[in-house]
Amino acid sequence: MKIYYFILTLFFCSISFAQSSISGSVKDTKNEPIPGANIKIAGESLSAISDATGKFILKAPAKFPFTIEVSSIGFAPQKLQVTSLSKKLEVVLQTEDTKLDDIVVSASRTPERVKESPVTIERMGIKDIKKSASPTFYDGLENLKEVQMNTSSMSFKSINTRGFATVANTRFMQLVDGMDNSSPLLNFVIGNMIGISEIDVQNVELLPGASSALYGANAFNGILFMNSKSPFTSQGVSAYVKYGQTSQKAAGTNDYSDYGVRVAHAFDNHFAAKANFSFLKATDWYATDYRDLSNPGKDRSFYNYNGLNVYGDEASTNIRNVAAGLRDAGVITPAQFTVFNSILPNYNVSRTGYNETDLTDNKVRNAKIDFSLHARPFGNEKLEIIWQSKYGFGNTVYQGANRYYLNDFFMQQHKLEFKGKNFFLRGYTTTEDGGKSYDMLFTALNVNRAWKSDAVWFGEYAGKFVQSTLGGATPDQAHAAARVVADNGRLVPGTDAFKNAFNKVIANPDVLSGSKLVDNSRIYHSDANYNFKDIIKPVEIQVGGSYRQYQLNSQGRIYTDANGPIYYNEYGMYTQAQKKLLEDRLKLTGSVRYDKSKNFQGNYSPRISAVYTAGENKNHTFRGSFQTGFRNPSTQDQYIGFNVGSAVLIGSAPDNLVRFTETLPVSSGGQSFTGTPTVIMTGVNAYNNSFTAASASAFGAAYRANPTPAGFVAAGVLLQKSNATYVKPETVKSIDLGYRGDIKGFSFDINGYYNVYNNFLGNLNVVAPYYGTAVNSPNIIAGPTDLGYQSAVAVLSGDTRVYQLYTNTDIQIKSLGFGIGVGKKVYKNFEVSANYNYAQFDFDQSKDPSFEAGFNTPKHRAKASFGNEKLFKNFGFNLSGRWNTGYLWQSSFADGMIDAATVIDAQINYAIPKLKSVLKLGAANIGGKEYQQVLGAGLIGQQYFASLTINP
Q1: What are the distances in angstroms from CA 494 to CA 309, 349, 475, 638?
Q2: Which of 105, 670, 725, 891 could form a disulfide with 666 if both were Cys (CB 3.0 to 4.6 A apart)?
Q3: How far apart are CA 274 and CA 388, in angstroms?
Q4: How far is CA 359 from the centre of its chain?
Q5: Interior/surface letters 36-63, b for 16+ CB within 10 angstroms, e for the rest
Q6: Distance between CA atoms of 921 and 912, rounded to whole angstroms?
Q7: What are the E-state strand segments in 267-378?
Q8: Closest by alpha carbon to 642, among 766, 764, 518?
Q9: Band of the pLDDT at 629, cuts 50, 70, 90?
Q10: The whole model's pTM is what?
């Protein structure tokens, strides 16, 4: 922080070099100012950006005359010759078709207009941010066509396109100034926590769908590019402040604040620098879904209640089996055991849990700091050298297999880049520190256990249940009485005893008694690209490549790295050729990329595309592309060894399976098979000796319905051995077709896609017996000496370990969808736009019943906006809305339905030219009902804010 203030002071106290300058303003044909226009001296690196009032100041070269080039999105560019500094320049730009003429780089790694892009692309610029009715520009991305937002926390939002959405989205990339924002440990993007400040955004580009051919294996579902402003062209001090309130039924009304400052200065043509700071503070959306999804309709009075946002109730055991433990411990006599065994029911009972709101302060904080130094040795864009450092830290909630409170989480990135007109070479490192983060499920489990062990709690429960039953109580009455006795003296949230136990648990990384998450992982990455277009004329050819090394270091808490960090590397290289034909109406592009990672064979990703521009004015563009993409298994898929309470997540790298070991207690009955009171289980058991969880559940239910020897034999037929394979890369073949054009003043963007996935990566839950051998339909009649029989007994006795495996399905998965976007200026400066997306996928669940594909995407989505930037002088407004149908959500945390939602956002803004400022009043989800985007996360309520943005 001291370094940041030191740099800030240097900027504020910077010396202005004696140099001539020109000033002026940029307006449209209606005499309205054009903010964000680019003013550049032809042939020089000198440039400037017009402010909110359209005014600019540009350092002038020593010699006259010279030419300036003025451009802005939505307007025709203009060149003016400057012969003196005697008067201010007044530039008037003519309106031009917008959106389709925006310049983008990401689609082909070379500048081109949106309508010339070979694939679907969406874009957000400075004007779009100003118009957005969302609380932040990142929230506003949800209004782009194809974008689906998944909110785990107010500050942790995951973007996805074209299906298979999740919070931990390892299929989608996010690059900020060329740096991958993914967590080194978990390989997914953590929203905008270390992203970019709103006042430093130059533009955002989105490529929906597979982009592996140019950007590698992680760009499987899409890629988002966030590009910041250059201090050479956007100088001065900018700042913003937002204040407002959030409203939610569960959390009430709470304050919300967000503020930031940007300082940038170009000292001369050779050196420039900038720094950014932003800070957000709010109360999170409370997660208060207390439904028991495993037992629909049941409430907390249910003996085996497992609430969605209640933790600690995952401690569940067959209450009849408790009797044997009490007998073996000498608590009851053999005669009493006979009574207990005849009275205690043969089903599970759970401990009393704690609400999520008891286990977190529900506060969101996020601070971002970044600074960069820019050098141009030749005084122009021929070569620029950039050093950039980014820091992000704060609190948020991440939802994976459990809900995790990322407390004092810290992440930093440092980049050195050399770039020019036709090339770049960059290297960067990403480091993260889990801080005081913890797992809320294990916090609840171990706070309970710190007060009273599971053995004692279930023993007291069983004793009181038997006593009440003998006294004439009904089963429901006996359960209620048993819980009161077992919970007597339980730690109550808010008391000193609870706080002391809580603080000890969250500071302890041992899952047997604590819940702290440890993470000190990092990434080292480098990539390069060169475009030969100035050397090879007939065809534009590019080549490039990348290298990445992961250093996983959770100290054994999440990965199997207790004995030291795990190192994992991957690399790739690509080439692309592009050619224009038929008077530049036809553009053909072909590219291919080769990627290799440590544990897998290399893969090629080819892409071919064609773009044809029709019409006398070239205002109708048709495009088509085909590519084969692939995705390597993530570091989680390979190296995780994470106990999440209800299961252990196990990655399938061969060395990972033997590194993960547990010593687990065996029931008294099971010890007749093992000969020991404990067994050692490894990841090998999970993959090679386990039943599918679905078949184990069906087997248990069938036996409980008929708990006789004949029933045991009949139920045994239901058990099915899992056939999980070690993970391997998944592949996709993708066809993308589209049209962009203008018809009678309407701007259209239509696209459709069809994807075929093979070896699709997903999760499989299995149950591994402590003894015996898992086989299909064990032969129960064979008796105790048969290993299949023993495995069935293990399942009935609870002598099992549940694992969540990372594996591929052999079943082909297909997805398809289409989208249409239309926009028009309807009257004066009023603009209306709308878009619609359809998505579906095809997976024959009956052929692989235990595999979860997790499409997690609504079939129908529609979005619309209506606004006017210049309703009258200095005043504008925008109204936006979005709607989606309900859909099935599948994840390792919970499965269930997400309800349909309709959301309306609105804002009004007023420019204050004298202060070079814009005042905005906005509201998100106005008048709407609370809605959900992630099953298990809090319902999203309303958000109201006022903001003041000051630009130089």
Answers
A1: 18, 26, 33, 41
A2: 670
A3: 9
A4: 23
A5: bbbbbbeebbbbbbbbbbbbbbbbbeee
A6: 14
A7: 271-283, 310-311, 316-318, 348-350, 354-355, 363-375
A8: 518
A9: confident
A10: 0.88
